[in-house]
Amino acid sequence: MKNTASSIDNKKFLILGCGFSGSFFAKTIRKLGLTALTSSRSESKDPNSFVFNSENGIVPNKKIFDGVTHILNCIPPDTNGEDPVLNILKNELKSLSLEWIGYLSTTGVYGDTNGDWVSESDQPNPLQRRSLKRLNCEKEWVESGLPVQIFRLPGIYGPGRSTVEAIKNQKIRVITKKNQIFSRIHVADITNAIIYLLKNKDSLKFHQIINIADDKPCSQIEVIQYCYDLLGLKMPKPIFFEEAKKDLSPIAQSFWMENRRVSNKLLCETLGYKLIYKNYREGLKNCFLNSLKKNKLKNFL
Ligand SMILES: NC(=O)c1ccc[n+]([C@@H]2O[C@H](COP(=O)([O-])OP(=O)(O)OC[C@H]3O[C@@H](n4cnc5c(N)ncnc54)[C@H](OP(=O)(O)O)[C@@H]3O)[C@@H](O)[C@H]2O)c1
To answer: Which mean pLDDT values do the consecutive 10-residue runs of the chain (301 residues) have?
Structure first.
């Protein structure tokens, strides 16, 4: 990414929900020399962090919002399916001179397509209750009158949270289901795609809803096999989903009930974003090398 003067220079970012994606985004934005304050549900030693917790009603001090121009909301809907940010901070946000709010949503809103491709122009058709609630959150954001842009994401992985770590931590279930396809995205591409869109805001047509997914939806077993190969280990014999499902939590089961390929054509063809990790092979190699570098595979390999 070119580090030239652009439409995000001198902007102040608030990252609501500094979890996996939020912290990657904050770190990257700071490397570009920009200010990024981040929220979490409990106190942290980081001077750039503040507490926002809709569960116990802790709201950020008003001073936090001073001069904020950009917000990235990475907080999922609460247990009632409502958006914590809109629920509690909507009036505060409306009082600011915001230029942009990014909302991380999910491709779960598309429901099951029997393995077919889905794009932003397809009508969402949520299958799960939580996806219906997510779609309602998206609608509320659109109707809020705030300058929101929604990013629909498939399974997010990256250094520290991938199948490589799942194998190492023995949290892997080697399950297979005929013709079942999943889409995924490396966390670095979420961050970089968003920064690319912001930096080129003036020259690109605005789209309110954008999928961020890699080029190669594929079966989970293909990904698991690749990670075992990277680690130089023999993959255990896969268990068929029908047999494995009795031991899966309802939420884990629900992921296997939806089968779709998420299209990134709007982002990568129409808008011209170039993926850093085009497919799971490139992305997982990055996770594997990162683990090696950080000595996380010591005593394992
Ligand atoms: N993970 C995936 O594969 C995936 C796929 C598609 C879409 N998504 C969606 O994309 C977004 C980002 O995902 P992620 O995996 O990066 O998220 P994550 O690591 O789980 O982080 C979520 C963040 O939200 C904060 N949070 C949660 N509930 C909150 C509440 N009630 N009030 C205030 N803060 C709250 C958490 O606070 P703490 O830091 O204190 O925990 C955390 O910082 C989420 O909306 C997620 O549902 C995720």
So the answer is: 65 98 98 96 95 97 97 97 97 97 98 98 97 98 98 98 96 96 98 98 97 98 97 96 95 95 98 98 97 84 75
Question: Where is 168: in which H helix or E strand?
Answer: helix 163-168
For the CA of 22, the closest atom of ligand 1 is: 16
Helix/strand/coil for 270: helix
Atom of ligand 1 nearest to the CA of 17: 43
The answer to whether residue 190 is domain-embedded is yes
pTM of the model: 0.97
Output the CA 32–ligand 1 centroid distance in Å: 24
Q: How far apart are CA 169 and CA 300, in angstroms?
A: 10
Could you give the CA distance from residue 265 to residue 212 in angstroms, rounded to a whole number?
9
CATH number at residue 134: 3.40.50.720
